[in-house]
Design a protein that fits this description.
- Helices cover 74% and strands 0% of the residues.
- The N and C termini lie far apart (27 Å).
- The model has no long low-confidence stretch (mean pLDDT 94).
Length: 126
């Protein structure tokens, strides 16, 4: 399971994924809050989202976020990749920067490309 600090860091990565196309919508914010509440049911998701947005705004390194993810089980990695894809495809398009981000993240956390593609496919058909 993820602790609060890890959830904040991963939420910052989700915010980064949402911001990469330079359009950060309320729907994307809601998807990030859904991630937060899936791990921290008793916390204020608005407060944690604000912290995550602040971290993302002041950071230009993905490595810190991915190191948190890398230490977790394949099941948690899969869940995080799924949340990342939900944010990215929420606007019904995936640009080259978003696709590149997902490839880089998967490489950094040792998540199989094939499984990443299967998650994306499942979500785009949903």
């Amino acid at each position: 399971m993820l602790d609060k600090k890890s959830v904040i860091g991963i939420s910052a990565l989700l915010v980064h994924a949402a911001n990469i196309d330079e359009i950060y919508t309320d729907h994307e914010k809601l998807l990030v809050k859904n991630f937060i509440t899936s791990y921290l049911k008793d916390e204020n998701s608005d407060e944690i989202l604000k912290k995550a947005e602040e971290i993302e705004k002041n950071s230009n390194q993905l490595l810190g976020y991915t190191n948190i993810i890398k230490q977790n089980s394949m099941e948690i990695k899969k869940d995080i990749i799924e949340h990342l894809w939900k944010v990215i495809i929420s606007d019904n398009s995936v640009d080259q920067y978003e696709a590149n981000l997902m490839r880089r993240i998967c490489g950094l956390i040792y998540f199989p490309d094939k499984e990443c593609a299967e998650i994306k496919l499942k979500l785009t058909k949903a």
